[in-house]
Amino acid sequence: MGDGTTDFFERQACAQRKTRLLILYFALAILAIVATLHVIFALLFFRPLYDPLVFINVSIGVALVVLIGTAWKIDELSGGGRAVAAMLGGEPVYKNTANVRERRLINIVEEMALASGVPVPDIFLLPDRTINAFAAGHSPGDAVIGVTRGCIEQLSRDELQGVIAHEFSHILHGDMALNIRLMGLLGGILGLSVAGRFLMHGAYIPSRSRGHAGKAIALAVAGGFALYIVGSIGVFFGNLIKAAVSRQREFLADASAVQFTRNPQGIAGALWKIGRFQSRLSSPHAHEASHLFFGNGVADSWIALFATHPPLDDRLKAIDPNFQPPSEVAGVPMVPTETAVGAHGALLEGLPGFAVESVRDVHGACAFVYSFLLDERDNYRNAQLRKSGIQDSLREEALGLFARRGEIAVAQRLPLVDLAVPALRNLSSAQYTAFRNNIRNLVESDGEVHLFEFALQKTLLRHLDVFFFKPPEVATKYHSIVTLRHETCVLLSGLAYVGSEIASERDEAFAAGFRELFVDRRELYDVWSQVYKRMEVCNLLQISWALDKIARAASPVKQTILSACRETVARDDVVAVREYELIRAIADSLDCPLPSM
Q1: Given the residues 102, 110, 111, 167, the one annotated as active site
Q2: For 491-510, how does the pLDDT look when each residue is reduced to its tens digit (9 = 90+)?
Q3: Which of 362, 354, 372, 296 is nearest to 122 (CA)?
Q4: Active-site residue 167, yes or no?
Q5: Does residue 336 come out as left (phi exceeding 0), alpha (psi in the -120 to 50 range) or beta?
Q6: Residues 158-173: pLDDT tens digits?
Q7: More confident residue, 210 or 501
Q8: What is the distance of C-alpha 343 from the center of its chain?
Q9: pLDDT digits (tens, 9 = 90+) for 424-442
Q10: Distance from CA of residue 516 to its chain's centroid?
């Protein structure tokens, strides 16, 4: 990896394929539990092994216990990343902190968020002096990144950036939701052991019972013991599968971290220091969340199959076979010695200081968003403010920021909106509802929705809605682009339209995206001639309708559609602001990371 010859994308695809296989093994483990209990209970109740009634009853019982245990565990984690961080003893890192190390951490997280096109996650600090980190949440909208105090004290800026980039990979590849599901499934299997202990305790009542009552108690104790043993075996295999899933995901995240930072030395240095300073956590819940961590957060397992992380040497070799550890470790400088922080840092440093300070405060973040929705015309702006319902203090601050709006480049608007997300998550539910209504009133006041307003609602409100309202997961409905050919054409047409005012260039841009689609080209061309050639049909309302439908597509279909969108935008090697705003809205609506442009 260090010599640049390794195909990172091939490594990612391989790890993802193995993960799907391991999830299948988890389902097979449940079936094995059912089969084992079927045999045990058939023998206990003197029934033939081929008795379907015993099998049905056992299957229903196991399913109920596993489902109840899983539902209970998932409900415990329904608070998303913040719930996991609190469970591990994390404390939030506030944007106005005066601690230099914490400020550096905030800057790195913001840099990586801006580079990857996702909202800035909340940051939590664990008290441990060891080196470790994690990302948790159901989606990018409620994600958090947690790091230990040892991380910010012992790592250089490049090394800390490598660790944060690793955690962003878990956010972008959907690992967080998978990790929480694994915790839930393990909780469900553990429920079998809990039910077995309860059954044994409840049935064993010291008495001199004779006859049928004594036999019933004996059978209950025997059945409870069987549940306990089989449940424990299920947890044993469940932990094996969890560890295997985690190991593959860690290799994937390491590879992605190098892609994000273009600096294998950073994450390699962090891994080397883990070997020196350790990564174990003191939280009693560390074992439960062991598969979330950057490094091994619990005691090393004497059985390699139970290790949730690959050996450090294997990870280092995969990242950089020629890695040379630093000659001195003592007294690692708090301030990085690097002469540059890279393109991500340059983007953050290029944002106007007054705007960055505004969006880091909850009051200022609301006013900032309002200021960008105000109309340039005085009479329209006054009408907006009268109808909006914005309180007086916020109204004055929004007008003050509006007066300085010209100091902010058009291309900096959405990045600043991303930076506002952590502050806006601190609104109460009632405050957020009012904030959301105010945005809608400001947008609709002139009777039309502009592209930036559309992008803002799709990026900002979508992620905040997930955080505050926790809507149910959308079921997958479409597994082929053929069934979404019309909607795909709408997106490509919209991107071609905003990318150029010259008809021939629009045709070329659409064709570039069109060639990325693996469908019958003749069939798609028929739709294209209807949609693309009649550009007036492709407005923001149509795009919104298309996105709502594509949001229910399978992940491979979304990936192909986003790749086609990327090719349409990249056709002329220039990403215009309007193109960026639209493709960002598309990616956010589909809960996918922004394609690399």
Answers
A1: 167
A2: 998 999 899 888 889 888 88
A3: 362
A4: yes
A5: beta
A6: 999 999 999 998 887 7
A7: 501
A8: 23
A9: 999 999 999 999 999 988 9
A10: 26
